[in-house]
Design brief:
Layout lengths: L2 H4 L3 H10 L4 E8 L5 E6 L2 H13 L6 H10 L4 E9 L10 H16 L8
Antiparallel strand pairs: 1-2, 1-3
């Protein structure tokens, strides 16, 4: 940490954090042993991936089938893969990114044409 970072107030650091741009888009959690996927989206993909991992590691993920495979196969048999990234529109203030991401996720799923039995 740089010296001037240590001298910033909590308020300044919070404001900087709010201004940061996180990668947003559609991603998948893929089981390497059976090629099944969970496709999800987020305005902060890395945080969402970390949340999925935390829930899976603690045994409390809402997708029971994914949880079962994660518990049986282990974290090393799963990968996080970005399928499509959405760039923020700096010139537009009232963009509903959550809505855009849901539409993008639906398009990605249709384009990938994944059979239902391969999806969590």
């Amino acid at each position: 940490m740089a010296l001037n970072d240590a001298m910033k107030t909590k308020k300044e650091l919070k404001e900087e954090y709010k201004q940061m741009k996180f990668p947003m888009g559609v991603f998948q959690v893929r089981n390497l042993t059976n090629d099944k996927v969970l496709i999800d989206n987020s305005t902060d993909m890395l945080s969402k991936w970390n949340r999925h991992k935390m829930e899976l590691n603690f045994g409390g993920h809402r997708n029971m089938e994914l949880q079962k495979d994660w518990t049986e196969k282990g974290e090393d048999n799963f990968v996080f893969e970005v399928l499509s990234e959405l760039k923020s529109k700096d010139d537009e203030q009232d963009v509903n990114y959550a809505k855009e991401l849901r539409v993008l996720q639906k398009m990605v799923i249709e384009e990938m044409n994944i059979p239902p039995e391969r999806m969590y």
